[in-house]
Amino acid sequence: MKLGLVILLLTLLPLPSVQATTPLDVLHWWTSPGEHRAAEVLRQDLLQHSVIWQDHAVPGGGGDSAMAVLKAQVIAGSPPDVAQIIGPNIGEWANLGYLQPLDEWTANWPDDWHRTLDELTRFNGERVAVPISIHRINWMWLNPQVYQELGLSLPTSWSQIMRDAETLRDAGITPLAHGGQPWQVATLFETLLLSVGGPEFYRDYFVYRTPEALADSRVEEALHLLRDLKTLMDDEMQNREWQEASRMVIEGEAAMQIMGDWVKGEFVAHSMEAGQDFLCMPVPGTAQHHLYSVDTFVFFQREDDETRAAQARFAEGIMDSNTQRLFSLQKGTIPARADLSLAGFDDCAQTSAHVFREAEATGLLAPSMAHSMATTPGVESALFHVLHRFFRDDDIPVTTAREQMARVLGALRDHE
Ligand code: BGC
Q1: Can you give the pTM of this predicted structure?
Q2: What's residue 21's pLDDT?
Q3: Is 117 buried (19+), middle (13-18) or exposed (0-12) by CB count in 10 A?
Q4: Confidence check: pLDDT of 16 > 80
Q5: pLDDT of residue 64
Q6: With contact defined as beta carbons under 8 Å apart, do 383 and 186 qualify?
């Protein structure tokens, strides 16, 4: 049975009657068709934990708009009950004293955690966030029919991708579907940096920000590659949403998209099957690497016991093994829980899980800068700005962009 159908049937099952309970206001940014379905899986599953999810979805891939809305709500004195906050940003909110510590709610949670997720969800040793699933970002999503019909072999190198472009264009197909929004440009750039430099260099650059890495010529190489790839995109791409780029691949208007595996959620929402209707291939040179982002929820502190009890049930529901599996199947991810079997997941997910474990064991996971895993929100947005300007304006020399990014990252290091 097709996965889409399984999910649909599950969401149609009669639900247990929910006792009168305090609804929870949930802020998140899952608004594309695939993301929306995945959020719906969560909402339905949480009903079984007597949680009423009051949806506050803020459109905008990558979550920048959602985080701006969150700040405005907090300043106005009305933070949501639950928010999707990810990466070191969790620590910043916890440090300001806004987040509910979770340790008293975690008695039934498994002990076996991925080390990276365990660290991401703690602040000063105490658990303050609950993880739902793990994304892998260094993927290419391809329409296999396009390649077959044009007699092209599947691309495994940048030179091949550049060479194939002419054949694709002649056939009226956009070689690379993309949206020129700042976060999408940054997502592509970090993937290219990983491809060019590998995970050790990637970490030296974005995480440790060593003076050598900031001055390294591999950054310029990645910037050149970004510019080369821009020539494979169509003229309409500047303000395009990522899910619109996915739609172009789905409909065969474009050959591929380079983006995190939330794209798979779009394919799944169209009842398409991995390996058959679409392909996932690692970005050239990154087959053994895992550029990750982890989705997590936090709870804003509440005085009243009923809301706190509902928040505790929400956290419990997110850690439920069935919920984590169903959500990931729709979202394109692998479950956050380390103790779950991936039976029934496709090859893209199996590969992601395998590479994640291996890379974590050798200390070579690459935390996404564009998806808030590697730096602070301030540095992230300054880097987005530099990269976006560089991407839009072909007259900016690569050395200038490299130096501007080095200044941003170096300033952060100097504050530590
Ligand atoms: C989130 C994903 C989301 C993607 C696009 C990422 O930052 O981790 O859950 O699907 O942005 O909106």
Answers
A1: 0.94
A2: 84
A3: buried
A4: no
A5: 92
A6: yes
Which residues fall within 8 angstroms of residue 271, CB to CB, at 6 or more apart? 2, 3, 4, 5
Ligand 1 binding site (Cβ under 6 Å of any ligand atom): 29, 35, 61-63, 86, 135, 262, 293, 295, 371
The DSSP string of 355-408 is HHHHHHHTT--EE-TTTTSSS-HHHHHHHHHHHHHHHH-TTS-HHHHHHHHHHH
How many A from CA of 409 to the centre of ligand 1? 23
Answer whether residue 58 shows pLDDT above 60: yes
Q: Lowest-confidence range among 4-13, 185-194, 199-208?
A: 4-13
- Specify the ligand 1 atom closest to the Cα of 295: 8
CA 175 to ligand 1 center in whole angstroms: 24
- The Cα–Cα gap between 227 and 391 comes to 7
Contact 406, 386 (CB under 8 A): no
Q: Whose CA is nearest to atom 12 of ligand 1?
A: 61
The neighbour count for residue 271, using CB atoms within 10 Å, is: 12
Q: How close is the Cα of 170 to the center of ligand 1, in Å?
A: 34
How far apart (Å, rounded) are the C-alpha atoms in residues 148 and 42? Answer: 37
CA of 222 to the centre of ligand 1 (A): 23
User: In this structure, are residues 139 and 281 in contact, taking their beta carbons and an 8 Å threshold?
Assistant: yes
d(CA 300, CA 193) in angstroms, rounded, equals 36
DSSP track, 5-19: HHHHHHHHSPPPPPP
